[in-house]
Amino acid sequence: MTQKVSWSVLSEPKKSLVLGLPVDCMNDYCDWLIFRLKNSLGTHVVTLNAEMVMQGEQNHLLADIIRRAELVIPDGAGVILYLKLKGQSVKRCPGIELAENLLWQLPKHSEDNLVFFYGGKPGVAMRAADSWQEKVPELAIACQHGYLSQAEETELLHTLKELQPRLIFVGLGVPRQELWIAKHRNICPEAIWIGIGGSLDIWAGVKERAPAWFCENSLEWLYRLYQEPWRWRRMLALPKFAWKTLMDVKF
What we know:
Elements: E1 14-18, E2 21-25, H1 29-38, E3 43-48, H2 50-58, H3 60-68, E4 71-74, H4 77-85, H5 95-109, E5 114-119, H6 124-135, E6 140-144, H7 150-163, E7 167-171, H8 176-184, E8 192-195, H9 199-203, H10 212-216, H11 220-227, H12 232-235, H13 237-248
């Protein structure tokens, strides 16, 4: 018998705005998503950070997708700082931690435990799947790397339509993963879809997540830059976000 999540102990997320883009604030995102999964309520989860906010200013299609997503979590330290300066006490919810919580919780709440990993270099998604299968044997995980030809992507879409996974984690990077989910989520309308960036690399052991001290002091971005110095151009979005935050926040 699967455990039921009572709606009485849940509440709808509180909507806030970060430079015009929505973010949902609540105590337990995982329980809320499990409830939607158990009730076949398809959900697109966006993990909002400062870099994505700045991309949304230039990419109107991305901004529209963020606005239409059923759940936008405060993933980045910059988003948390913005909300705090606006007088809102919000706890950060890293996308990788939410994804991991869902993987741990799925077998407790569903008899259908099929999960799909899509993204990363060849071999990465498979290694990530193997790692999680060892941790949670009740899961059934299918996967596909993110370097596909048009014909291979078409085959992937047919596979997803046939399998109908409950959780679909897409690690193609921002904004590609958000655009891809928005375009194709109709083929698995009851699934939880989450763009997880480089999480597959971490689960596969290819890269390491920042040590706890960096995470606790909002410096995870700095550790990632140390690991991937080629990202420095993308990191230029952070001072732009900080400047716009100062201009937007009324003290």
